[in-house]
Task: structure prediction
Amino acid sequence: QVRLHESDPGMVKPSQTLSLTCAVSNGTIANLNYYWSLIRQAPGKGLDWIGFITWRGDSYYSSSFENRASISTDTAKKQYTLQLTSVTSEDTAVYYCSAGGFWGQGVQVFVSP
Result:
């Protein structure tokens, strides 16, 4: 089965760009017709879908993140990356990679001065 592993961006300061990479194993982005997604869960809130990218490189975003989020793939490295610009404390959340029904373990991201 496909495995997904989130990188740990560590602490991010307000107004900076959060960069988070999803590493794919037991499969490749190019060979699996999945929606390679990023989802997050802020403290005390439900799951919030950020966006996804396809194996062809087409990306789609929630309207809540459309102006700040960008997802790209590196099929050779079997990974995809979220860039979320102009972060605030409201972007503090656990971030998950998900595709084809598979989920990563999630990574806690804190936005703090």
About this structure: The mean pLDDT is 94. The CA atoms of residues 27 and 54 lie 14 Å apart.
